[in-house]
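anyone seen this seq b4? input:
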Amino acid sequence: MNTYIMMGKYSLDAIGKISSSRTKKGEEIIAACQGKQKSGYAMLGEKDLIIIAEFPTTEKAIKASSTLSKELGIGFTTSAAISFEEFDKVMAGK
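predicted toks r here
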């Protein structure tokens, strides 16, 4: 499984619909795309939330990101991520 960082911004409409059931719906969307939410946080600042999730492929991450936006009104910027250990191996040419 590959790690993805998903940073979200609520639309004005979505802010009024924040609830624990919508949070659960987000987790279900990720799972339906063969993903696993590792952690999630609400934030202050430019972005409203961050989700760290694993997906088997980039295509599945794209599907989850798009579906979350469509169904929950949260626009996501989704980026692939690797651990520092893996990064060091890549940079060392291993």
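The radius of gyration is 14 Å. The helical segments are 12-15, 20-32, 58-72, 84-91. kinda curious what u guys think
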